[in-house]
Structures are given as C-alpha cells and as structure tokens.
Design brief:
The chain is of the alpha+beta class. It has ten helices and seven strands. It folds into two domains: about 120 residues; about 130 residues, Beta Polymerase, domain 2, CATH 3.30.460. Strands 1, 2, 3, 4, 5, 6 and 7 form a seven-stranded mixed beta sheet that branches. The two termini are about 30 Å apart.
Length: about 270
C-alpha cells in the first residue's frame, strides 16, 4: 500500500494560514481599523464606504513569513455620482492621503492601487465606485490602463465559500498550498487567477493529498511566458516524483521532492 502525506499537507496548509486572533491577524485588524478611520475622517461625504476584500477576506492570504509580498486589499468606494473623477484623480487623492498619514511608511502607486507598506503587511488602497440599476449594481475599479473596469469580488468570495463547503473544506487549504509554491516559483500566476482556476476544479472524493495533486495536474500554462511555463512544468514533474516515491513506500525521498515544491515550516 502506498504511503500518504495527506496529514502533512493538511498541517502545511494550516501553517500557510493567518489564523484567527494570531498576532499577525490582530496586527492586520488594528491597521485596517486605523486606515479605515483615517480615510473616513479625511474624505467625509466624498466616500460611500471603506471595506476590506480580496484574499485576506477569503482566508487564502499567505502569512508574511511565506510571502513578503502579501497584501490586504482595501476598497475605497467614492461618491462617484457627485464627484465623477477619473481613476487617476482618485488615486492621486489616496496617495496624498497616505503620504500625509503614513509618512514613516513606504507609500507608492502600483497600478491600479496605492500601496501603504507597514512593518507587518502591505495594504492596497483601491479606488472604486458603484452604479445601481433597480435591484442590481455594478462595481468599478481601475484597470492597468487607468480606465474603469467592472468587478465582482463578492461573487468570487461566495463561490469559494460554496465550493470549500461542498468539498469538505479542502479547497481553501489547497489554494494556500499552491500559493506557497507559486510564491516560491516567482509567481507564474497572479493570486487572483490561481484562485479562479482552483475554484472551478471538481474535488469530489478528494482529500488534501489527492486534491493537491489533482489541482497541479489541472493547472494550465496557456498564454504564459516561457519562464512561467518552465516553472509549471517543473512543478508537475516534481509532483510526479513525490507520487512515485510514495507508491514505492520511500517516504524520505517523497518528502525531499515535496519540499522542492513547498516551503517547510518556519
């Protein structure tokens, strides 16, 4: 009977998790409250709302120890019906705000956001506005061309919650496992596209191990630059080595190749 690393992958997925009420989580929450309050005081009626979204809200963000680029997205929804400004104008306002209130931190533009890099994590301030038609609404954020694009982050969050529940709560951990590889490999995928790809996978009957291996098989390199294609091909090759050594009951070599894929605990 082949050996299993299901339990180890479960432990690693938890290691790559900012657990509730941990020091890192509490620091993020404190900073979120601080930034949100300052934004509301600064802009007043120019704002509709301030809220966090993205991978932090979906429990798929990696701890800073495993991804120095981890960031928390803050949506700054402006009263666009009254203001009617361009994305660049809103970003200029947010940059001035960040320079004023966080002068001791690293503050800079990074399309389509303004980044405030605090000691423990980065915060991306994303200008946004919403248009409502009867019972529906459309949310807009800037794109890389400095124009408005529609988005629906709540749909992705809802989809992930649904599939994670449906497949026995293994989907979010598998996303974190693959994000740990992705970061180590130089990020051949954006965080968003990696999550989107994994959400659409059928994990029926899978556990952490079989689901992780299956997800690797399903990753596509379509449209990727050559360096990214090579990273993805290497991932699949190393995964094959892990499976082969598990099948031959050689755990030391299986773990050797697994840790070429995933960073060990810190």
């Amino acid at each position: 009977m082949a050996l299993s690393i299901n339990g180890l992958l479960r432990e690693l997925a938890y290691e790559y998790y900012i657990s509730y009420d941990s020091q890192e989580d509490n620091s993020i929450k404190t900073s979120l409250t601080n930034i949100s309050g300052k934004l509301r005081n600064e802009f007043g009626t120019k704002l509709i709302s301030v809220s966090d979204f993205g991978s932090y809200k979906r429990d798929t963000i990696l701890p800073r120890a495993y991804d120095s680029g981890s960031d928390v997205d803050i949506m700054v929804k402006f009263n666009h019906a009254t203001l009617a400004k361009t994305p660049d104008t809103y970003r200029t306002w947010l940059l001035a705000f960040a320079d004023k209130h966080f002068s001791r931190s690293s503050v800079y533009r990074d399309f389509p956001t303004v980044v405030v890099e605090l000691g423990h994590i980065k915060f991306d301030l994303v200008p946004a506005y919403e248009v409502s038609y009867w019972s529906t609404s459309t949310l807009y954020i800037p794109d890389s061309r400095n124009e408005w694009q529609s988005t629906d982050p709540s749909a992705l969050t809802a989809d992930l919650t649904r599939v994670n529940t449906h497949y026995g709560s293994i989907v979010k951990p598998i996303i974190r496992l693959l994000k740990a590889w992705n970061t180590r490999a130089g990020k051949p995928y954006s965080s968003y596209e990696l999550e989107k790809a994994i959400i659409n996978i059928n994990f029926s009957g899978d556990n952490y191990q079989t689901g992780f291996f299956y997800a690797i098989n399903q990753l596509s390199d379509y449209g990727k630059p050559q360096w990214a294609k090579e990273k993805i091909a290497t991932l699949k090759k190393y995964k094959g080595y892990v499976e082969a050594y598990l099948y031959n009951n050689d755990m030391p070599k299986a773990l050797l190749w697994l840790y070429y894929i995933l960073p060990p605990r810190k």
